[in-house]
Design goal:
Length: 214
């Protein structure tokens, strides 16, 4: 699997262009719930690298490893046996669209922390997906009440387009920090940048700070 070069190049150019012409940022906030430069959408757009992996649920596994006391590899059945929670949150994509009031369901990242028990040396988390996408976050950012290993949107199983059977949701960050089709979560002692982070996108990705590009 290779990322679609046109998609990657276009988005990488956007990062370069916006850095140079930041005065031309898109529309200001129309709504106090919309961060600067964002607009509302009514549909749920699909963004990927030009490739959506097909994952047979019988073959699906999630591995959680690295600097943890109890590394695990879960089958779909194991994952289903974890406690499910709901998160109500807004979703902000760096390409300027936002979707408000989403109801997500899945397993809280904080539950995962209880299971794998990170060592004190674990400071960063790297997410790896079935399409070879990666994204990274500090552990303290993932250790939040609204960070969810998500299986449902609006009471329906996530479609393949949106990262089914399981994707991450990290509501306080731009949406690229939420990996779709997650395969592996590694706890690391140092930061390792992900797919967009090495291509000019912000390592912190804070929508309310208009923090899009590095
Ligand atoms: N595995 C994977 N996860 C990914 C991506 C991707 O290309 N591959 N794109 C990211 C980006 S840039 C965004 S904006 C969101 C989009 O999620 P959606 O397609 O459900 O709207 O997924 C993020 N997670
Ligand atoms: Mo994105």
């Amino acid at each position: 699997m290779e990322p679609n070069e046109k998609i990657v190049n276009a988005k990488q150019k956007m990062a370069q262009h916006r850095r140079e012409f930041s005065c031309r940022e898109v529309d200001g906030p129309q709504d106090e719930r919309l961060p600067e430069g964002q607009h509302l959408v009514n549909n749920f757009p699909v963004l990927d690298l030009g490739y959506k992996p097909t994952i047979d649920i019988a073959e699906w596994t999630l591995t959680i490893d690295g600097f943890v006391a109890n590394p695990v590899t879960w089958t779909w059945e194991d994952f289903q046996a974890q406690p499910m929670s709901q998160v109500h949150a807004d979703f902000h994509c760096v390409t300027t669209w936002s979707m408000l009031d989403n109801d997500w369901m899945g397993v809280k990242f904080q539950h995962l922390l209880e299971v794998v028990r990170p060592l004190s040396s674990a400071k960063f988390v790297l997410f790896e997906s079935y399409d070879d996408y990666t994204t990274n976050l500090p552990l303290e950012v993932c250790d939040d009440d609204d960070v969810l290993l998500t299986t449902h949107w609006k009471d329906r199983p996530l479609t393949k387009d949106h990262g089914g059977p399981m994707r991450m949701i990290v509501p306080k960050r731009y949406a690229w920090k939420g990996a779709k089709w997650v395969k592996k979560i590694s706890f690391l002692d140092r930061d390792q940048k992900g797919f967009w982070e090495v291509r000019g996108y912000s390592n912190t990705a804070l929508p309310w700070k208009n923090d899009r590009y590095a």
